[in-house]
Amino acid sequence: MNKMQMVDAVHEKMGGTKKSAEDLVDLVFNTITNELKNGGEVSITGFGVFAVKQRKEREARNPRTGEAVHVPAMKAPKFRAGKGLKE
């Protein structure tokens, strides 16, 4: 399912205009994104937890050339599925 399919599903369930459904979907994604950018986490009971994981710097290889490449430390989004989603 992509974003527009999600907007359509919300529109079917909630009614109203398609624009209001799109605004609602955008609001949810923007809220999650902003919380992760600020170093927080978002826990949705029965679904899962969105969090940010700090990755250490490391050495990797360029798959085309085999040359060693330095990968700096970075933050990466992480999702851990909840029990409701696993069942």
UniProtKB/TrEMBL annotation:
<keyword id="KW-0238">DNA-binding</keyword>
<keyword id="KW-0226">DNA condensation</keyword>
<dbReference type="GO" id="GO:0003677">
    <property type="term" value="F:DNA binding"/>
</dbReference>
<dbReference type="InterPro" id="IPR010992">
    <property type="entry name" value="IHF-like_DNA-bd_dom_sf"/>
</dbReference>
<feature type="compositionally biased region" description="Basic residues">
    <location>
        <begin position="77"/>
        <end position="87"/>
    </location>
</feature>
<dbReference type="GO" id="GO:0030527">
    <property type="term" value="F:structural constituent of chromatin"/>
</dbReference>
<comment type="similarity">
    <text>Belongs to the bacterial histone-like protein family.</text>
</comment>
<dbReference type="InterPro" id="IPR000119">
    <property type="entry name" value="Hist_DNA-bd"/>
</dbReference>
<protein>
    <submittedName>
        <fullName>DNA-binding protein HU</fullName>
    </submittedName>
</protein>
<feature type="region of interest" description="Disordered">
    <location>
        <begin position="57"/>
        <end position="87"/>
    </location>
</feature>
<dbReference type="InterPro" id="IPR020816">
    <property type="entry name" value="Histone-like_DNA-bd_CS"/>
</dbReference>
<dbReference type="Pfam" id="PF00216">
    <property type="entry name" value="Bac_DNA_binding"/>
</dbReference>
<dbReference type="GO" id="GO:0030261">
    <property type="term" value="P:chromosome condensation"/>
</dbReference>
